[in-house]
Design a protein that fits this description.
The chain has 95 residues and is mostly helical. 89% of the residues lie in helices and 0% in strands. It has one domain: Up-down Bundle (F1FO ATP Synthase), CATH 1.20.20. The protein has three helices and no strands. Helix 2 runs antiparallel to helix 3 (63-94).
Amino acid sequence: MDLDLNTITQLAAVADPEAYGKSAGKAIALGVGAGLGTIGPGIGVGFIFGKVIESVTRQPEMRDEITSIQWLGFALTEAIVFYAFIFGLIAFFLA
């Protein structure tokens, strides 16, 4: 079995428990951070659509204006999810 330097380096990295633990910790942190970063926007999106339904049932004649405001609020709220994801990736790769 002929091993080149790259294969030996990879095997040594796997055999090092400290490096493995650090890599696993970073992956767990990314998952938890991204998960917690989506809770707030998820609640916000539910709140937006709930209030839109309530508003349209109270004033059906303003449906078009309410819907346009709804999509603006939805887009701004969803941007938070992308920021949380990007910050998580930055922390994962730079830490």
